[in-house]
UniProtKB/TrEMBL annotation, chains A, B:
<protein>
    <recommendedName>
        <fullName>pantothenate kinase</fullName>
        <ecNumber>2.7.1.33</ecNumber>
    </recommendedName>
</protein>
<keyword id="KW-0418">Kinase</keyword>
<keyword id="KW-0173">Coenzyme A biosynthesis</keyword>
<dbReference type="InterPro" id="IPR004567">
    <property type="entry name" value="Type_II_PanK"/>
</dbReference>
<dbReference type="GO" id="GO:0015937">
    <property type="term" value="P:coenzyme A biosynthetic process"/>
</dbReference>
<dbReference type="Pfam" id="PF03630">
    <property type="entry name" value="Fumble"/>
</dbReference>
<dbReference type="GO" id="GO:0005524">
    <property type="term" value="F:ATP binding"/>
</dbReference>
<dbReference type="GO" id="GO:0005634">
    <property type="term" value="C:nucleus"/>
</dbReference>
<dbReference type="GO" id="GO:0005829">
    <property type="term" value="C:cytosol"/>
</dbReference>
<keyword id="KW-0808">Transferase</keyword>
<comment type="pathway">
    <text>Cofactor biosynthesis; coenzyme A biosynthesis; CoA from (R)-pantothenate: step 1/5.</text>
</comment>
<dbReference type="InterPro" id="IPR043129">
    <property type="entry name" value="ATPase_NBD"/>
</dbReference>
<keyword id="KW-0067">ATP-binding</keyword>
<keyword id="KW-0547">Nucleotide-binding</keyword>
<dbReference type="GO" id="GO:0004594">
    <property type="term" value="F:pantothenate kinase activity"/>
</dbReference>
């Protein structure tokens, strides 16, 4: 959930008729706060609509937007606009939505999973006492999941189980080693726990995404959402999962502006609703930090509402 | 992993030529221990072979073996032996194997997931300090996952998101509420954590199973393995997941002897290898408890090796 915003007003921000187009859970969660502190109404746009509109816009308008990622190597993909559809859009927020996109405004949410970014951050916070999503992600970078996951080799005396195509290093059971009777939570390194969690969740999302792409015969799987955040290990795990489950036939693709699909879509909805009135687009700094509570932790899954970053606005002159 | 055993010897159990057919990880893990303490060799049989052989045997030989489960109601399914294949066998041990079964000895492991019973017990042990798998499972019975999971209604101001078919009570993000900044692990009830874990894992297994059944056009999904252990809430969650993702088109089926597929298959492999020598089948008590270490915790995912239970043996007279 993030607040994705454009901004419209008549004369000034505190005018009763000021409103911001917003989408996602944040549009509900922060609605009262925006009204109370800034006098701005959040005008809710459908989340799936916005995600798809944002992704389509990026894929068509931005050069070098989509890329593949494998073994630390990023490769930009040039997509022919006439051959863009259909594709599977996988948006990883606190939960995960999988959307079959057939064209502009033509889409269906075909699947999803509750095991997403909120699960990583929620379980990770309980297990490691990390104070922020970024801290947890950073931890995973230094960890080794083999301390906690049971690998195929751990089960089969160090050997592969080649008959069914599993190498000794494949994870047989996520957190399987944590069943050990003589160890407690304190005996495991937070960085190993974080790494194991990240692999479990990324791998699971990659697998379910691939199975859905297969189901609908979709060549491309495009991953977006703030969970990824250009984090190389996350992208690598998702890419490896798609590669593994598809036996090399499918490739995961990522977007440079992955965290802003909904925001872009909400912004573009001004166009749909009142293009004639939209006369000026500009970036306008807003004192968000002072107005939106005391929470100083950066939590992308709850909306990027900290810091003094600007919110992209469309100034609306009636 | 469990040790699945039949037992063969010439004159007595400590004879050098005594051996037990065994399969799964336990056949590797406990191999030395059996040799050292009982003078018995574990003769390893292929795990997938054994699972399939065991399941096929049960489905054909045992009356009222398979049943569906929904809303607390068990309904036995009479399966026509001539219309048994193909089906998807989902064996949930510490990890999960998904096997497309086309006939006796005809099968392919088509998928699986590392998020299985080991994940439930491993994560559950770290988070709740439960001392046994059974204790953790029992906890889940009394818990309420809504204290920890983010539901669709939590995101959308108590409302459904009907446009994409999600009711307000659907889990949007497993453990999503645990991202709350002002709460630590100690602030959550162990029973709520256990329930949330069980739902997350059972739901995920149900979803991936259904997607694989769909992929291969399999009408039946049969769940086995010691994770389920006739636990009604586990079966209910898996059944609901299959119902939800298939929009009511597929039904999850369970087996009465779910935890013994591999053991049965290993036992039946005597038949394959040396039927002529197999002259007596009997149940023979073995002093397992005294011989296999000091671990008094019951851990079905590591094999049921505690207590004074008997191991089914085939006495082999050369």
């Amino acid at each position: 959930m993030n607040v994705n915003s454009g901004f419209q007003h008549q004369e000034n921000c505190t005018n009763d008729r000021s409103f911001i187009k917003a989408t996602g859970g944040g549009a509900y969660k922060f609605s009262e706060l925006f009204k109370e502190k800034l006098g701005i109404s959040l005008e809710k746009e459908d989340e799936m609509d916005c995600l798809v509109t944002g992704a389509n816009f990026l894929l068509k308008a931005v050069n070098q937007e989509a890329f593949t990622y494998l073994n630390g190597s990023k490769e930009f993909v040039q997509i022919d606009h006439n051959d863009l559809y259909p594709y599977l859009l996988v948006n990883i927020g606190s939960g995960v939505s999988m959307i079959k996109v057939d064209g502009d405004g033509k889409f269906e949410r075909v699947s999803g999973t509750s095991v997403g970014g909120g699960t990583f951050w929620g379980l990770g916070k309980l297990l490691t006492k990390s104070q922020s999503f970024d801290e947890l992600l950073e931890l995973s970078h230094r960890g080794d999941n083999r301390a906690i996951d049971t690998l195929v080799g751990d089960i089969y005396g160090g050997m592969d189980y080649l008959k069914i195509g599993l190498s000794s290093t494949t994870i047989a059971s996520s957190f399987g080693k944590a069943t050990s009777h003589n160890k407690e939570l304190e005996d495991y390194k937070p960085e190993d726990i974080s790494r194991s969690l990240l692999r479990m969740i990324s791998n699971n999302i990659g697998q379910i995404s691939y199975l859905n792409a297969l189901r609908f015969g979709l060549k491309r799987i495009i991953f977006g959402g703030f969970f990824i955040r250009s984090h190389s290990y996350t992208m690598d795990t998702i890419a490896v999962a798609v590669h593994f489950w598809s036996k090399g036939e499918a490739k995961a693709m990522f977007l440079r502006h992955e965290g802003f699909l909904g925001a872009l879509g909400a912004f573009m909805s001004y166009e749909t609703h009142s293009l004639d009135d939209l006369v000026v687009n500009q970036v306008m700094p807003l004192p968000v930090n002072a107005s939106l509570g005391t929470d100083t932790n950066y939590d992308p899954l709850e909306g990027d509402l900290n810091g003094t970053e600007s919110i992209q606005c469309s100034v609306y002159r009636a």
